[in-house]
What we know:
This protein has one domain. The protein contains 9 helices and 4 strands. It has helices at about 15-25, 50-65, 100-105, 120-135, 155-160, 180-185, 195-210, 210-215, 220-230; strands spanning about 5-10, 30-40, 80-85, 145-150. Helix 1 (about 15-25) links the parallel strand 1 (about 5-10) and strand 2 (about 30-40). Helix 1 (about 15-25) crosses helix 5 (about 155-160) and helix 5 packs across helix 7.
Amino acid sequence: MSDLLRIALVAEGPTDYEIINAALRAILPRPFVMTLLQPEATRPEMGGGWCGVRKWCHDTRLRCDAMQGTDITLTGFDLLVIHLDLDVACKSYTDCSPEVESMARDFGWAILPCQQPCPPVSTTCDQIEAVLKSWLGGDVPMHRTLYCLPAQSSGTWLAAAVLPSGHALLVGVECDIRVEKGLAQLTKKERIKKSVLEYRKYAPVITTQWQQVKQICTQAERFEQTVLVATV
C-alpha cells in the first residue's frame, strides 16, 4: 500500500461517515482518504439505512459471482469498511419490503431479528457480523474488508465523546437503543441533533476524545483493533 490509504465506506447514512471518519483519524497513524460508496446520492434507487447496506452487499455478491472474484468496482481501494448499527439486530427483513423477506429465505441469509441479551454486547455483535457475511454470500468483496458495528448506533460514540463521564445518558450506553435519539433531546446546551452538519461540527471531539470513547464503548475498541490488523 502507498503512504496514502484509500478507504471505501459502505454505511447506513452520511452521519455515520462523519463518525467513522473521525474515529479513523484517531486510529490511523497515516494519512487516508475515505470515499462513501453507500449511500450514494447519484443512485437513490439503492436506498439508505440498513436496507441500503443490505442491497449493496447483495448486489456486490452477485457481481463477484458473475466475475468469479473480487468486485471490480472496488479496484483502487486499499480497505473496505462496511458499517451497520447493532440496533439492526432488532429489525426484520419485512421492514425493507416483503420482497426482501422472500429473498432472505431464497438466499439463506442469517435470521433477523437476532438481538441477544445485553450485556454483553459482543454476542449481538457476532450475530450481526454473521448477518453481514450472509448478505455477502460468505465471502468478502476484497482482501482487506472489515466491519464497523457501533452499539447500538454510531451516535453512541458521539455521545461518549462529548458528554461528561457519569452522564445519565451514558449509563448502560451500549445496550440502550435510545441513546442517539436521547442526544437530540437533551437541554439546549448539550443537545446534538442528528444531521450531517451537526455531526460534522462535533465529530472532531471523537478524534480528540477517542480514548474516552473506547473506555465507554467496547465496540469502539473492537473497531480499532480490526483497523490496525487490516492496515499492518
